[in-house]
Amino acid sequence: MNTDDRARLLTRHIRELAVRRARLRRRRPEAAGNPAHLDCLDAAIRRLGDEIDHRRDDLAIIASTGSYQPWSHHHFRLGDFARIGGAWYPVLHAGRRALTVPPLDLLGERRHNPNPEQVDMDSVAYFRVYGRRRAGRVLHTPPPPQDAACTCRVTIPTFNPEFVPERDAGPCTEPPVARLTIRHDGTVCGCHGMCLLPDADAADSALRAPWVEVVLLCDAHTYEHTAAIAAVESPAVTFEDLT
């Protein structure tokens, strides 16, 4: 499957998940008198929201880097933690098609086997995994491919900074060591609405829909962006160490 096919597939999945979430939200008033049923609906709505956010992040990676690889057994090992359904589970085994983890929570409660001689485990397909935690470092999406490069531009100072402060030397070719993800919504992202302004060359003058920006940073560009990243304290901005 090439990059364009993958992008179209993700777009279709996002649309289908959004329709399912809207259908469940419309059912909430009907369950107002049944707290247990309402809890089940809210849990399902949260799971669909997590999956939509994860698919949007995947789509942003394709748009920014031109390539994408899903979670696989190459990304996990014994001792890692996998994020599944909003909770973290220790990885017991990373198979080619699925992860083996302890029993999954059911509505926030951990299931236990009354027989202590039996060890319960669940098998979870990789498309249901929304993150990895290893040695205190969290990745919300898979690391970039081995041949990925920094997505920043190389700038060179000029001899006349008064008139031309810097010169564009083309795209950076260094390998990435960090990833910056910004979920632009015009407010929480800190852009004060500027990120949603339409393109001046576009025929449509309507505001853009919320979108996700993914930036791969090499060692030098990570150092350049450190101060700016530290100054932004927003849930819409995620900085991930890829080393």
Task: Please tell me about this protein's structure.
A four-stranded antiparallel sheet has the order 2-1-6-7. The chain has a three-stranded antiparallel sheet with strand order 3-4-5, with no helix packed on it. It has a three-stranded antiparallel sheet with strand order 11-10-12. The chain is 28% helix and 23% strand. The chain is built from three helices and twelve strands; from the N terminus they run ααβββββββββββαβ. The protein is globular. α1 (3-27) runs antiparallel to α2. By secondary structure, the protein is of the alpha+beta class. It has three domains: 3-65; 73-139; 153-241, no CATH class. It has helices at 3-27, 35-65, 219-231, and strands at residues 81-84, 87-90, 93-94, 98-101, 122-125, 129-134, 137-139, 153-157, 166-171, 178-184, 211-217, 237-241. β3 (93-94) and β4 (98-101) form a beta hairpin.
Brief characterization of the structure:
Helix 1 packs antiparallel against helix 2. This protein has helices at residues 3-27, 35-65, 219-231, and strands at 81-84, 87-90, 93-94, 98-101, 122-125, 129-134, 137-139, 153-157, 166-171, 178-184, 211-217, 237-241.
